[in-house]
Amino acid sequence: MSQNEVLNLRLVCQDWRKEIDDHYGGWKIQIDDKSPYLKLLLELRVTKCAIINFSKSSPLGPEKIFKNPDLVKDIEISEDCDEYFEIISPQNLHYLLKSCFRNLKTLTLSLTENLLNNPCSSENFQGYSFQNLRILIITLQKDKPDTMDTPLSIQEDSLLHQIITAPMPKLSTINVICDVQLSQSSDARVAYDVLGFITRHGKILEQIVYQNHWYGDEESPVDFSALDFHTIDLSLLKKVNQLKTFEITLSTVKVMALKNAWKLLLDYQTKLEDCKVYDLPISSVFLKHILTSNFGTLNSIEIGELVAQDIVLIDGNERRVFDMSVFRNCVNLLSLNLDNNEYNVQPHIGRPMLQNLSRLPPQLKLLDLSEFSICSEDVLEFIRNHRSLYSVAFRNCWCLQDGPNCGINGTIMEELMSERCALLTEIDIDSFTTAHQDELMKLIQLLGRFDYPNNPSLDNYFPVSLYKDPISNTWKRGMLPTGGEPGPRGVIIP
Questions:
Q1: CA distances (Å), 150 to each of 33, 217, 439, in order?
Q2: Burial zone of 2 (CB within 10 Å; 0-12 exposed, 13-18 middle, 19+ buried)
Q3: Cα→Cα distances 68→46, 64, 82, 135, 272, Å
Q4: Pick from 14, 40, 12, 11: which is nearest to 27 by CA?
Q5: Which residues pair with 322 in a beta bridge?
Q6: For residues 436 and 439, what is the distance between their CA atoms, to the nearest angstrom?
Q7: Integer Cα distance of 124 and 396 in angstroms
Q8: How many angstroms separate the CA atoms of 298 and 290, rounded?
């Protein structure tokens, strides 16, 4: 039954109105100031609302949004990236939070430039205290698509700053996502504000997500002296040691002091379940420390820039190596994603060599490796020892320097596609080793079933994506269709 149909039923009589209100308990509504039912909606006992369009004045009168504001627990203001218009005016946003902030538990905000730097917004939000807020999700976006290439400058007293510096004594989750190119000074200011927030609320935080993944053009050097980084007491990060989720992407953060602070925060964790770090180099020694401190709780790891430090002689040549057996004690690890990052490949010693894949935890369901060298026999043994796999991906894991016994070959593909890997639903590989003629013929035969051309050695780059159809239980070309509750990378894990 639609929202409008339910509203019409409430108009039948008082008994129906009471019956419907008792049934629904608290109302979950969408606010659109173009709706003829807007006044009626705002008079309900609303507990959750999503703002679709709210730029006009409230029909309930000046500064009054809801008839029962203290009942509102969840507010979502999410910008539609395909629309690019301001879905709420700064004034209405102020009135909305001013009336509901006392009992609010979840706040999801999409902030465009107009909201961020509007003087009305920043002045009105000063002095707020979200005493019961548990979850705060903020996304920074552009107002218009034609300004996407222009870095966004955020003022020192911006709305983001006012909200993130407000007291939130019960907050357990903070997500700040930058879907926009920021100027370097603004980029540093946002990261600085988030870190400052963490030091003030660290004892109760369980989830931290900070993503700045906009790769813009390099700017001229910026003077960061206006930001007093020393006002952040990094010793307080020691008290932030109970995080369950740590997700950081620092694509554009240029200030090394800030990057080191994030790494210091990660260093103190002892209860991590999900760890995702991109654009922040993680050495093999530091990763081992993280695993040792969180081996009993980790179930998902993503490292976007793993720096292997051990150098050994292999066939008379120096090679960097990383021993995968360091993960063997992670008894709950289900998903592992490691990337060497192509910019870290050192020509004179090539990609790092991964060793002992077969000693990864037996319960592993997803493995995604990029920009590493791998021994073919090690991969085959890994597959035979890990029949619980749902998804495997090997990206750019072979080159001519590796020799004929490295990389993914026909025997490995044959094993992955066999009935012995009954749970496997997704295979993603973009390069193969074809040094042995018999292995090349296996590949041609296997991939020919899916209309791949008979030249898998072409330029050493030959992307292959296969998924297992859940109905016919047969392999098909392409990516796994979405549906249900997706696990890592879209894999549906029951």
A1: 31, 10, 51
A2: exposed
A3: 7, 10, 33, 21, 39
A4: 40
A5: 354
A6: 5
A7: 52
A8: 10
Residue with tokens 């539609």: 80
pLDDT in tens, the chain (494 residues): 565 665 666 666 766 666 665 555 578 888 888 888 888 888 888 999 999 888 888 888 878 889 888 889 999 987 654 454 568 888 888 888 888 888 999 999 988 877 887 765 555 666 677 899 999 999 988 766 555 567 777 777 788 888 888 889 999 999 998 887 777 778 778 888 888 889 888 888 999 999 886 555 444 445 455 455 556 677 888 889 999 999 998 875 556 777 888 999 999 999 999 999 998 889 999 999 999 999 999 999 999 999 888 777 666 677 789 999 999 999 999 999 999 876 555 655 568 889 999 999 999 999 999 999 999 999 999 999 999 999 999 998 876 666 778 889 999 999 999 999 999 999 999 888 877 888 888 888 888 888 887 665 544 678 899 999 999 999 999 876 554 333 333 332 22
> In the structure encoding, which two tokens stand for residue 198, read together?
């963490």
Please give the C-alpha separations between residue 227 and each of 155, 232, 260, 322, 426, in angstroms, as whole numbers: 12, 11, 16, 39, 47
Closest by CA position to 75, among listed 30, 40, 113, 39: 30
Residue in the structure block whose two tokens are 């959750």: 48
Q: How far apart are CA 352 and CA 399, in angstroms?
A: 12
Residues in the chain: 494
| Residues near 85 by beta carbon (within 8 Å), at least 6 away in sequence | none
Burial group, residue 403, by CB count within 10 angstroms (0-12, 13-18, 19+): middle
What tokens were used for 254?
A: 């240029």
State residue 266 phi and psi, 5-degree precision. -65, -35
Distance (Å) of CA 264 to CA 110, 287, 338: 29, 13, 21
